[in-house]
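can u do me a favor
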């Protein structure tokens, strides 16, 4: 069973709550809501599967952030260009670091994949990540193997919800997920907060990227300060084996320059700054 708190809907009462009635009503709500997160209750397992099929039929990019069958709650997050831009940049940065060690062939990266927690064939819960990765040789199956690292993004003030999701990743996977990165992107302050969690769960790192705007010219120009960086990803946690030091294998380090470029890509997606 998942270790996720069964009162997920109370994690952040600022998230709108709606009760499922029909598929049409739900998707109309999704099309018109101004919130980045919507919690839907009264979602049975059969209803959840119908909602998934309807999403595919309508070709919508809503992310089914977390589904908890026991309490029939589905948390949906809206498409967000800032999150997409940051996720792409992080994916490329990790791929570059892994490629520099000659390990591209040993690494699988995934996005928009649904991971299912089952017991005796029955769906208990499911989660979708913005980004995930796993070692190709030790975990080759997209259907049966959990990733070793997942990355979740959330909007302003979403860190409590993201932390609860991190607990779900560890519990649902029976700790086969080794690293969870949480990104809270605050559009009001321009801050990006990154927390790294490992199995326990325990937080091992908290990084802040702060946006500083110079509005003295005709076009606002941004610079970025990184606090408590770089972002340090343990090699053994990612690849499930010790690094071969004599072959140049080492921890994956997303340095402060990488993080500044990530922030720049994130806020450029809003088309507000240069």
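np, heres the sequence
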């Amino acid at each position: 069973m998942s270790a996720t708190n069964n009162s997920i809907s109370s994690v952040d009462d600022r998230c709108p709550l709606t009760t499922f009635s029909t598929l049409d009503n739900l998707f109309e709500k999704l099309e018109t809501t101004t919130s980045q997160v919507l919690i839907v209750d009264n979602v049975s397992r059969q209803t959840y599967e119908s909602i998934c099929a309807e999403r595919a039929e309508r070709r919508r990019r809503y992310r089914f952030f977390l589904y908890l069958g026991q309490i029939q709650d589905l948390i949906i997050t809206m498409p967000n260009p800032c999150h997409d831009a940051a996720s792409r940049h992080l994916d490329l940065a990790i791929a570059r670091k892994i490629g520099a060690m000659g390990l591209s062939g040993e690494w699988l990266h995934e996005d928009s994949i649904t991971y299912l927690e089952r017991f005796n064939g029955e769906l208990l819960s499911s989660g979708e990540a913005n980004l995930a990765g796993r070692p190709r040789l030790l975990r080759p199956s997209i259907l049966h193997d959990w990733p070793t690292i997942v990355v979740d993004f959330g909007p302003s003030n979403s860190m409590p919800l993201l932390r609860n999701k991190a607990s779900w990743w560890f519990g649902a996977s029976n700790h086969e997920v080794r690293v969870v990165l949480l990104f809270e992107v605050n559009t009001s302050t321009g801050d990006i907060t990154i927390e790294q969690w490992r199995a326990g769960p325990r937080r091992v790192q908290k990084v802040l990227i702060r946006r500083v705007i110079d509005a003295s010219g005709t076009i606002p120009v941004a610079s970025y300060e990184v606090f408590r960086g770089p972002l340090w990803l343990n090699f053994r946690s990612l690849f499930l084996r010790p690094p071969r030091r004599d072959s140049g294998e080492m921890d994956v380090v997303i340095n402060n320059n990488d993080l500044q470029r990530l922030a720049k890509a994130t806020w450029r997606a809003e088309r507000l700054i240069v």
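The chain is about 30% helix and 30% strand. hope that helps!!
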